[in-house]
Amino acid sequence: xxxxxxxxxxxxxxxxxxxxxxxxxxxxxxxxxxxxxxxxxxxxxxxxxxxxxxxxxxxxxxxxxxxxxxxxxxxxxxxxxxxxxxxxxxxxxxxxxxxxxxxxxxxxxxxxxxxxxxxxxxxxxxxxxxxxxxxxxxxxxxxxxxxxxxxxxxxxxxxxxxxxxxxxxxxxxxxxxxxxxxxxxxxxxxxxxxxxxxxxxxxxxxxxxxxxxxxxxxxxxxxxxxxxxxxxxxxxxxxxxxxxxxxxxxxxxxxxxxxxxxxxxxxxxxxxxxxxxxxxxxxxxxxxxxxxxxxxxxxxxxxxxxxxxxxxxxxxxxxxxxxxxxxxxxxxxxxxxxxxxxxxxxxxxxxxxxxxxxxxxxxxxxxxxxxxxxxxxxxxxxxxxxxxxxxxxxxxxxxxxxxxxxxxxxxxxxxxxxxxxxxxxxxxxxx
Length: 431
Prior knowledge:
alpha+beta
């Protein structure tokens, strides 16, 4: 089932972090080449260049492959990033093995992929990578040829008052590597997490501001429309009343048509009143759940198709909420559900009290929406219906957001759509 949250930002911080990691890995290639050159030229380490070159080529190819993979597939950015950092640790171990093993003074560069990973990956994955780093570093002691180790150790013992000082030095470096890795992961990971939270908050704020600006434009338009339509509707009401009186005196069968016109005008004025209340920032007031639902279904064009569930235990519960805004939003959801369903298909309105919030879920059995349609469903003026205006979901989502709530849409193509609309509603009392 496809799902969409309209109260969340559209940014993907994990994807951005992965792209940062891929860029930093190019610098990591240069670091490995530079460290190898220094170890060979200045420190006299024996270097098997063919193996080092193979590792550099493997890093470059893996980075190019990762760039293409993250664009073409839905693979998790965290998984791909974890694999790349783990690969860097293993390949760097290979470089160290062929450039002096644990004797190579550049072994502390293990901390570079650790730092890169701590910046881009989740904490749990990074602790696993720290364990991999310590395991690979320890493996160098076992993989290093014994002859080279013994010769160097013998040379060091000749200059040290204590036997085995060099071996103890190497083991101390291994422990220091572990301690440094723990501190880096702890500090950089926490800093990165804070940055990701900030980016997510900024994304949500930008999305919220965009929706508020669109809602403000629609609010201005709605207020103008309500003002302009009030006069012609009043004229139509007066004329239809006079027309009905004359037709009644003439015993005409057209009297019923005049009465219908007057009823529809009254309905239009009620809609404008609700719209004006929503636009003007209606104050919250106490009303029972039964009263709110009755206002939602009253005069709804397809009220006979709406099945209300969850009312038995909640009918007399008294809530504090802005009635007109809630009625307008939920009626918009019901109208969308009716339009998306077959002519005789039922639409369900389910009510629940969740802690201090009221939750209304509208479910239909219509055509449903695919992932692409669902992503844009709550945008203003986006519609797949020939005569639709694309404002129902947008208005409902905007009202929920303004009241401090949220709206989630779940849909399966060919099976229908479910919209969960939730807002805070102080429960004054329950009888």
